[in-house]
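does this look right to u?? nicotinamide-adenine-dinucleotide version
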Amino acid sequence: MWKVSPSRLEDMCTSIMRAAGAPGADARLVAEHLIENDLIGHHSHGVIRLWDYIEAARRGELIPGASPRIISETPTTARIDGGWNFGQVIATFATGLAIEKARTAGVSVVTVRRVKHIGRLGRYAEQVAAAGLVSLIFTNGGGHGINQAPFRGTERKLCSNPMAMSVPSGLAGPFLLDMATSVAAEGKVRVYGARGTPTPAGWIIDSDGNPSTDPSDFAGGGALLPLGRAEGHKGYALAFMVELLAGVMSGGGISGDPARSFSNDSMIIVIDPELFLPMAELEERSLTLTEHLKDTRLADESQPVLYPGEKEAEARSANRGGDIELPDPVRQQLVSMLRRFSLPEPEPPSSG
Ligand SMILES: NC(=O)c1ccc[n+]([C@@H]2O[C@H](COP(=O)([O-])OP(=O)(O)OC[C@H]3O[C@@H](n4cnc5c(N)ncnc54)[C@H](O)[C@@H]3O)[C@@H](O)[C@H]2O)c1
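got this back:
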């Protein structure tokens, strides 16, 4: 494992993206997004992703600096074409627009298409919660982005089709549900692969459809199972609905369409809760709910009941100011990208 300070890592990632053609502010935004994910323990959507982004830019599939275009809009809606820029840049813009519209009109629905990997959806749900609003976000994936088998199927047909929801809270972090509709995010299997450890049972099947815990079986053409394991019809049905809302309604298209480049097509819905009740009452009632749920006999005394989003909020405050630990293959990828662009390399990891 390689220990590195978040600020050094952010500078390295920013310089790589700038060298690949991204404007400085965009490169910094994407770097900050990736590093924050590593800091809160979502390594699946951390710096491990940068290699793919830079490769996509090299192939001309990701267009650094492309401006988002509003195809059409009303006071409550907008359809955005992302121009194939970094997903984080486009999704931050789209979320900002949805917030602006909901602040004036009370509710808004914004769709995005032709957009590369947007990363951790929770980031945009947090952006909405910080504005005192409620969010629902749905995202699919095009082309080769498929990695999830439909319930009763044995082949990759869907992306891990994530969804996020947030409600502002008066607690350390917003109430935040942010999840893949597969049993886990695909990036988590990559992290197990990079660390050389097996995945938990029930996550993946190999290319013949047999249960597996070997990340290389997944990389070799296996698939993620839908959320719910034996009851996977629920995860699969959620993934199906995400396809309709994010892929079909955005005009992007369906996961796995071979004619499409990978695109995290999305639908972002924002609601002003104060149309329904004052913010103070929302916070008070949701605190009562949280306390009611936490006040229970625990299955394991060391594992308290959490509110959705508490894990991320706790990790954020626990890791403030600390170093990030990354597996060696991720460091090697960074070094290789820095070399490609003739940028300064990090010190070799100390043996102590
Ligand atoms: N861009 C993409 O294409 C894409 C695809 C799939 C997933 N993702 C991202 O991958 C990330 C990880 O997804 P995942 O499905 O593996 O998520 P996860 O299993 O790590 O977490 C899911 C949710 O459960 C909540 N949670 C965790 N432990 C809890 C507990 N004990 N009590 C209550 N709530 C708890 C978390 O706060 C989170 O909201 C997400 O950020 C998601 O947006 C992105």
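The domain at 1-64+322-352 is CATH 1.10.1530.10 (Hypothetical Oxidoreductase Yiak; Chain: A, domain 1). idk if thats expected tbh
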